[in-house]
Amino acid sequence: MEQKTIKILSTNISIEKGTIKKPVHQIEMNDHGVKGDAHAGSWHRQVSMLGVESFKKFSEIAGREIAFGEFAENITTEGMELFKTTPLDRFSNENIELEVTQIGKKCHGSSCAIFREVGNCVMPKEGIFVRVIKGGNLKTGDVLNYHPKIFKILIITLSDRASKGEYSDKSGPKVKEALETFAAFSNFKLSFENVIIPDDENQLKNILTSAKDTYDFIFTTGGTGIGPRDITVDVVKPLLDKEIPGIMDMIRMKYGMEKPNALISRSIAGLMNTSMIFALPGSVKAVNEYMSEITKVLEHLVLMLYSIDAH
């Protein structure tokens, strides 16, 4: 992947919220955001950023040139469309490191001084917010490197027959297909690894233990029933630091209303420290049903896990 960089065109500060920011020679950032800025604090929207690529579009709408800081951005940049980033992406140089936490925000319309003065506001649509991971000074002319967050995904198919090559695994690829569709709409960047193993308790436990904190998401398929070889849930559950019962309970109830056999599944979800794990049934049809619901909450789960309060 080609390394992207952005150039700092302006650094800006305001002492009151809801007002335009004034350019300054440089800003000092600490673990609360920009020192002396009204938006600094112990929250996820410490620093606001806006690209000149967005300025140009809204200058045409406003019918005049808009000055840096007028959209209340702390940092005005050039080099990429910032709104195409995703939470947990990072910008850094040798002095500072910033982590993306939110894309856009709610527009307050005429109650906002920026909206009244400029007649429109680009921040709700194309501005981004970041929090400070490593503090330092930033000034006009500095360059930041862009580091997209790549979510690592491990898909484990448990099947005695598939592991012997007696038939092709179809459930694992269905999980990947659902996640790729999710990524296309959410702009998340994903990488995949897939393994096929027999219904073996020790083998699954060893894989999960080594995968903990290495992968962002772990999906297993198969072994959630009540047969003598259905061991997945019995292995996964003791490894969880936190269980997330609601999503699996809802799926069982939703599809069990029409197909009572769905209620027999012992599917489970939870956290192994920072790794999210979902143990799914093995049938392709069930995988489609489960993934259609799980992908609806994946982004919110990520935000919660990384303390991004974007409710």
Describe the structure.
The strands form 3 sheets. Strands 1-6-5-9-8-7-11 form a 7-stranded mixed β-barrel. By secondary structure, the protein is α+β, with helices and mostly antiparallel strands. It is elongated, with a radius of gyration of 23 Å. The relative contact order is 0.13. It contains 9 helices and 17 strands.
Topology, element by element:
Elements: E1 4-13, E2 22-24, E3 26-30, E4 33-34, E5 47-51, H1 52-62, E6 75-78, E7 90-92, E8 97-103, H2 113-118, H3 123-126, E9 128-134, E10 136-139, E11 143-147, E12 150-158, H4 160-163, H5 171-186, E13 189-197, H6 201-211, E14 217-221, H7 232-239, E15 242-243, H8 245-256, E16 268-272, E17 275-280, H9 284-305
Helix pairs in contact: 5-9, 6-7, 8-9
Radius of gyration over C-alpha positions, nearest whole angstrom: 23 Å
Major sheet summary line: 7 strands, mixed, barrel
The number of E-state strands comes to 17
Looking at the overall shape, the CATH architecture of the largest domain is 3-Layer(aba) Sandwich
Task: List the main descriptive attributes of the protein structure presented here.
M1 Pyruvate Kinase, Domain 3; 17 strands; Molybdenum Cofactor Biosythetic Enzyme, Chain A; alpha+beta; seven-stranded mixed barrel; 311 residues; 29% strand
Please sum up the structure shown:
A hairpin with a 4-residue loop joins strand 7 and strand 8 (97-103). The chain is α+β, with helices and mostly antiparallel strands and 311 residues long. The protein is elongated.
